């Protein structure tokens, strides 16, 4: 049985060693642009048509609303584009949307997930998540500053306001973490599901 190998050069240079990329709650992003993006290349040892058919079968099974989410499907070029959204249970975020681009070639395929946007309760417009990590850093700094103020403040009324401010800031961070954890689970489900569909087995270890 053939083993399907992730392109470790790509994955590890992207997520670990390249200065422009970092990873928090398992979610890879470009720390210069803030873009949440995950790219994996898999060596298949198969023809493009065979891999394309396997991926199409997985998409059809995974997305009952296939006609709505598939924005491009071209067997001649081995190209898929999927655009979908998932709910988030938090006070700050209602759901997130994402784009999946799959390029299939003889012997390998590349799957990229990016263009991540979030929808807040009461809003009708999805907003780019590119500022998420910048906002999280800002809130974290504000929490540290507020904690220092608390440590030196004696006035009870002022302390009450500071404690309230810190609770609000912590709730913001918690909501970001919830949304990112949900994104990470969804993105890994997609990458692993495609890998398993192409390999024809239920479980594979990536080297």
UniProtKB/TrEMBL annotation:
This is DUF4468 domain-containing protein. Residues 1-22 form the signal peptide. Keywords: Signal. InterPro entries: DUF4468. The keyword Signal applies. Residues 45-117 form the DUF4468 domain. The keyword Ribonucleoprotein does not apply.
């Amino acid at each position: 049985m053939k083993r399907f190998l992730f392109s470790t050069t790509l994955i590890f240079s992207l997520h670990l060693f390249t200065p422009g990329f970092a990873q928090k709650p398992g979610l890879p992003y470009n720390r210069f642009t803030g873009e949440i993006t995950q790219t994996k290349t898999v060596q298949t040892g198969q023809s493009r048509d065979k891999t394309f058919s396997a991926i199409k079968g997985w998409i059809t099974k995974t997305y009952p609303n296939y006609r709505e989410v598939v924005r491009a499907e071209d067997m001649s070029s081995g190209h898929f584009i999927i655009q979908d959204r998932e709910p988030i249970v938090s006070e700050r975020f209602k759901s997130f949307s994402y784009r999946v681009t799959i390029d299939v070639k003889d012997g390998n395929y590349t799957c990229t997930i990016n263009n991540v946007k979030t929808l807040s309760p009461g809003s009708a417009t999805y907003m780019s998540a590119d500022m998420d990590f910048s906002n999280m850093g800002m809130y974290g700094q504000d929490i540290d500053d507020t904690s220092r103020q608390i440590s030196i403040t004696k006035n009870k009324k002022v302390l009450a306001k500071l404690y309230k401010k810190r609770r609000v800031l912590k709730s913001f961070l918690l909501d970001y973490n919830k949304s990112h954890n949900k994104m990470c689970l969804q993105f890994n489900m997609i990458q692993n599901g495609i890998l398993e569909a192409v390999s024809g087995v239920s479980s594979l270890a990536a080297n």
